[in-house]
Amino acid sequence: MHDILLLTRAFAFAADKHTGQRRKGENAEPYVNHLAEVAHLLSQAVTGGDANLIAAGLLHDTLEDTETTWDELARVFNEDIAALVHEVTDDKTLPKLERKRLQIVHAPHKTPRAKMLKLADKTSNLRGIVASPPAGWPLQRRLEYVAWGRDVAAGLRGVHAWLEAQFDEAAEAADRALAGRD
Ligand code: ZN
Protein backbone atom coordinates (compact mmCIF):
# COMPACT_ATOMS: atom_id res chain seq x y z
CA MET A 1 0.00 0.00 0.00
CA HIS A 2 1.27 3.49 -0.81
CA ASP A 3 2.57 5.24 2.32
CA ILE A 4 0.20 8.19 2.11
CA LEU A 5 -2.77 5.90 1.56
CA LEU A 6 -1.64 3.70 4.46
CA LEU A 7 -1.27 6.63 6.85
CA THR A 8 -4.51 8.38 5.94
CA ARG A 9 -6.30 5.06 6.20
CA ALA A 10 -4.77 4.47 9.64
CA PHE A 11 -5.80 7.96 10.77
CA ALA A 12 -9.36 7.52 9.55
CA PHE A 13 -9.58 4.02 11.06
CA ALA A 14 -8.25 5.17 14.46
CA ALA A 15 -10.50 8.26 14.52
CA ASP A 16 -13.51 6.06 13.77
CA LYS A 17 -12.62 3.38 16.36
CA HIS A 18 -11.96 5.92 19.11
CA THR A 19 -15.09 7.99 18.32
CA GLY A 20 -16.45 9.53 21.50
CA GLN A 21 -13.38 8.67 23.62
CA ARG A 22 -11.57 11.47 25.40
CA ARG A 23 -8.31 11.88 27.28
CA LYS A 24 -8.63 11.82 31.04
CA GLY A 25 -7.09 15.31 31.47
CA GLU A 26 -9.12 18.29 32.67
CA ASN A 27 -9.45 19.52 29.08
CA ALA A 28 -10.88 16.15 27.99
CA GLU A 29 -9.15 16.36 24.61
CA PRO A 30 -10.50 14.08 21.89
CA TYR A 31 -8.55 10.79 22.08
CA VAL A 32 -7.31 11.24 18.52
CA ASN A 33 -5.15 14.19 19.68
CA HIS A 34 -2.98 11.70 21.59
CA LEU A 35 -2.73 9.37 18.58
CA ALA A 36 -1.72 12.25 16.30
CA GLU A 37 0.96 13.34 18.78
CA VAL A 38 2.43 9.83 19.09
CA ALA A 39 2.45 9.36 15.30
CA HIS A 40 4.08 12.76 14.77
CA LEU A 41 6.83 12.00 17.31
CA LEU A 42 7.52 8.72 15.51
CA SER A 43 7.45 10.40 12.11
CA GLN A 44 10.09 12.88 13.27
CA ALA A 45 12.13 10.06 14.82
CA VAL A 46 12.28 8.08 11.57
CA THR A 47 12.18 11.20 9.35
CA GLY A 48 9.08 9.80 7.71
CA GLY A 49 10.89 6.61 6.68
CA ASP A 50 8.96 3.82 8.40
CA ALA A 51 5.32 4.17 7.41
CA ASN A 52 4.30 0.97 9.23
CA LEU A 53 5.70 2.28 12.51
CA ILE A 54 3.97 5.65 12.09
CA ALA A 55 0.70 3.89 11.24
CA ALA A 56 1.14 1.69 14.32
CA GLY A 57 1.51 4.93 16.29
CA LEU A 58 -1.93 6.01 15.08
CA LEU A 59 -3.38 2.58 15.83
CA HIS A 60 -1.49 1.79 19.05
CA ASP A 61 -4.49 1.94 21.40
CA THR A 62 -7.05 0.23 19.16
CA LEU A 63 -6.54 -3.28 20.58
CA GLU A 64 -6.53 -2.05 24.18
CA ASP A 65 -9.29 0.54 24.11
CA THR A 66 -11.64 -0.38 21.24
CA GLU A 67 -13.29 -3.48 19.78
CA THR A 68 -10.57 -3.88 17.17
CA THR A 69 -8.94 -7.33 16.77
CA TRP A 70 -5.46 -8.42 15.69
CA ASP A 71 -6.96 -10.08 12.59
CA GLU A 72 -8.70 -6.88 11.62
CA LEU A 73 -5.46 -4.86 11.85
CA ALA A 74 -3.62 -7.53 9.84
CA ARG A 75 -6.34 -7.60 7.18
CA VAL A 76 -6.98 -3.85 6.83
CA PHE A 77 -3.28 -2.93 7.19
CA ASN A 78 -0.65 -5.66 7.48
CA GLU A 79 0.84 -8.16 9.95
CA ASP A 80 3.82 -5.94 10.77
CA ILE A 81 1.48 -3.18 11.98
CA ALA A 82 -0.75 -5.66 13.84
CA ALA A 83 2.31 -7.14 15.58
CA LEU A 84 3.63 -3.69 16.58
CA VAL A 85 0.27 -2.68 18.06
CA HIS A 86 0.01 -6.02 19.85
CA GLU A 87 3.46 -5.51 21.39
CA VAL A 88 2.38 -2.27 23.09
CA THR A 89 -1.00 -3.61 24.24
CA ASP A 90 -1.61 -4.54 27.89
CA ASP A 91 -3.37 -7.78 28.81
CA LYS A 92 -6.69 -6.33 29.94
CA THR A 93 -7.67 -9.53 31.76
CA LEU A 94 -5.11 -8.57 34.43
CA PRO A 95 -5.73 -6.09 37.26
CA LYS A 96 -4.55 -2.54 36.62
CA LEU A 97 -1.66 -2.59 39.11
CA GLU A 98 -0.31 -5.83 37.67
CA ARG A 99 -0.53 -4.41 34.14
CA LYS A 100 1.47 -1.38 35.23
CA ARG A 101 4.10 -3.59 36.88
CA LEU A 102 4.37 -5.78 33.79
CA GLN A 103 4.94 -2.75 31.56
CA ILE A 104 8.16 -2.14 33.52
CA VAL A 105 9.15 -5.83 33.40
CA HIS A 106 8.39 -6.30 29.69
CA ALA A 107 9.80 -3.01 28.34
CA PRO A 108 13.44 -4.19 27.93
CA HIS A 109 12.31 -7.28 25.97
CA LYS A 110 10.32 -5.49 23.27
CA THR A 111 11.56 -5.20 19.70
CA PRO A 112 13.37 -1.92 18.91
CA ARG A 113 10.46 -0.39 16.97
CA ALA A 114 7.98 -1.30 19.71
CA LYS A 115 10.33 0.40 22.18
CA MET A 116 10.21 3.55 20.05
CA LEU A 117 6.42 3.42 19.90
CA LYS A 118 6.13 2.91 23.65
CA LEU A 119 8.55 5.76 24.35
CA ALA A 120 6.56 8.13 22.12
CA ASP A 121 3.38 7.03 23.94
CA LYS A 122 4.92 7.69 27.36
CA THR A 123 6.22 11.08 26.17
CA SER A 124 2.74 12.09 25.05
CA ASN A 125 1.23 10.90 28.33
CA LEU A 126 3.70 12.89 30.45
CA ARG A 127 3.15 16.00 28.33
CA GLY A 128 -0.55 15.51 29.03
CA ILE A 129 0.06 15.50 32.79
CA VAL A 130 1.49 19.01 32.43
CA ALA A 131 -0.82 20.44 29.76
CA SER A 132 -4.06 18.95 31.07
CA PRO A 133 -3.71 17.17 34.41
CA PRO A 134 -6.52 14.75 35.29
CA ALA A 135 -8.78 16.79 37.56
CA GLY A 136 -9.39 14.12 40.17
CA TRP A 137 -5.73 13.22 40.66
CA PRO A 138 -4.09 14.43 43.86
CA LEU A 139 -0.44 15.50 43.68
CA GLN A 140 0.79 12.16 45.03
CA ARG A 141 -0.93 10.24 42.25
CA ARG A 142 0.57 12.54 39.61
CA LEU A 143 4.04 12.11 41.12
CA GLU A 144 3.61 8.32 41.10
CA TYR A 145 2.49 8.43 37.49
CA VAL A 146 5.62 10.32 36.42
CA ALA A 147 7.85 7.96 38.44
CA TRP A 148 6.17 4.95 36.85
CA GLY A 149 6.61 6.47 33.38
CA ARG A 150 10.33 6.84 34.08
CA ASP A 151 10.55 3.21 35.25
CA VAL A 152 8.95 1.97 32.02
CA ALA A 153 11.08 4.30 29.89
CA ALA A 154 14.26 3.00 31.55
CA GLY A 155 13.65 -0.31 29.78
CA LEU A 156 13.07 1.38 26.43
CA ARG A 157 16.44 3.12 26.16
CA GLY A 158 19.30 2.42 23.80
CA VAL A 159 17.30 2.48 20.56
CA HIS A 160 16.64 6.12 19.67
CA ALA A 161 18.45 9.01 21.39
CA TRP A 162 16.18 11.76 20.04
CA LEU A 163 13.03 10.04 21.33
CA GLU A 164 14.73 9.53 24.69
CA ALA A 165 15.51 13.26 24.79
CA GLN A 166 11.85 14.06 24.07
CA PHE A 167 10.81 11.78 26.91
CA ASP A 168 13.37 13.27 29.33
CA GLU A 169 12.20 16.79 28.47
CA ALA A 170 8.58 15.82 29.11
CA ALA A 171 9.48 14.14 32.41
CA GLU A 172 11.49 17.15 33.58
CA ALA A 173 8.65 19.50 32.62
CA ALA A 174 6.30 17.28 34.63
CA ASP A 175 8.67 17.46 37.62
CA ARG A 176 8.73 21.25 37.43
CA ALA A 177 4.97 21.51 37.05
CA LEU A 178 4.32 19.17 39.96
CA ALA A 179 6.82 21.04 42.13
CA GLY A 180 4.78 24.17 41.44
CA ARG A 181 7.63 25.85 39.61
CA ASP A 182 5.82 26.30 36.31
ZN1 ZN B 1 -1.40 5.74 24.06
Core attributes:
182 residues; single chain; mainly alpha; Hypothetical protein af1432; binds zinc ion
Write structural notes for this entry.
- Helix 7 (96-106) runs parallel beside helix 9 and helix 9 packs antiparallel against helix 10.
- The chain has 182 residues and is an all-alpha fold.
- It is built from 10 helices and no strands.
- It is globular, with a radius of gyration of 16 Å.
- It has helices at 3-17, 31-45, 51-59, 62-65, 70-76, 79-87, 96-106, 112-131, 139-154, 161-178.
- It has one domain: Hypothetical protein af1432 (Orthogonal Bundle).
- The longest helix has 20 residues, at 112-131.
- Bound molecules: zinc ion.
- Zinc ion binds next to loops.
Oligomer: single chain
CATH class: Mainly Alpha
Give the C-alpha Rg: 16 Å
Bound molecules: zinc ion
- Annotation field: number of helices: 10
Secondary-structure class: mainly alpha
How much beta, percentage-wise?
Answer: under 5%
The gross shape turns out to be globular
The profile of the biggest β sheet is: none
Q: Please name the CATH topology.
A: Hypothetical protein af1432
Mean pLDDT across the residues is 96
> Roughly what percent helix?
55-70%
CATH superfamily: Hypothetical protein af1432
Low-confidence stretches are none
So, CATH architecture? Answer: Orthogonal Bundle
Alpha-carbon distance between the two ends: 45 Å
List the SSEs and their pairings:
Blueprint lengths: L2 H15 L13 H15 L5 H9 L2 H4 L4 H7 L2 H9 L8 H11 L5 H20 L7 H16 L6 H18 L4
This protein binds zinc ion (ZN).
Please sum up the structure shown.
With 182 residues, this protein is mainly alpha-helical. It has helices at 3-17, 31-45, 51-59, 62-65, 70-76, 79-87, 96-106, 112-131, 139-154, 161-178.
